[in-house]
Amino acid sequence: MKIKFISNCKDNNYKHLFIDNNVILDNLMKNSLCLEIDKYEKLYFTISDLKYYFLITKGTIRISKIYNNGAKFTFIFLKEYDLFGKFGEIKKNNSSLIYELEALENTYLLKISIIRIFNKIDQEKTKTLYKKLIFALNKRLIRNNMLMEILTHRNIKNRLISFLLYLALYFGSLSKLGIIINLNLSHSTIAEILCSTRVTITRYIKSLEKRQYIKYLKKNIIIINPILLTQYKNL
Prior knowledge:
InterPro entries: cNMP-bd_dom_sf, HTH_CRP, RmlC-like_jellyroll, WH-like_DNA-bd_sf, WH_DNA-bd_sf. It holds the Pfam family HTH_Crp_2. GO terms for molecular function: DNA binding. This is NtcA-like transcriptional regulator. The protein is α+β, with helices and mostly antiparallel strands. It folds into two domains: 3-150, Jelly Rolls (Sandwich), CATH 2.60.120; 153-233, Winged helix-like DNA-binding domain superfamily/Winged helix DNA-binding domain (Arc Repressor Mutant, subunit A). 39% of the residues lie in helices and 29% in strands. The protein has eight helices and 13 strands. It has a five-stranded antiparallel beta sheet. Helix 4 packs antiparallel against helix 5 and helix 6 packs across helix 7 (198-210). The radius of gyration is 19 Å and the shape is elongated.
């Protein structure tokens, strides 16, 4: 596992997107660690990490739950400037539950010790920081719920199309060819996320390509026409 602790995260402009109070920001930086995680490397969280928040300063990650029987369930993808941590789903009587973080590209995380920060700032600034944290985590929760709804589709075709549209919304960029999903996900990985098989996912993806709803550019999926793709899902 290649995880490095470094003195400074790349692109410090992220700080102004999260905290606009200099006193809080200074304390945040003094009581945080910066981690660099190589592409496809993994980091594991247990109940002991509940006291930390993590801010992605560069990169993209996938977070999954690993259950006692070894089953893995992906419940969110996060990107630059997203905040996560304080996993409320973990109960003290279920300390064996593990969260797996996988870097989908070279990623930089800021590991924030909230307790230390609260001990060093006054009550008014503590309220300000709480509001910022709640706002940031609420954004993550909305995205989390969207993915959960997608996974409830019984029809695997609809599940796949909804997942591709979800990725296009949060990780897509416009081009002349359509919306490029800026994630490199294999058919096996998509199958694992959607609780299906690689053979089934490959069959449906080829069908979508044949209908010219999507296409591949190198290893990235392009949504050629999201409106037609949505209409096809509803057929």
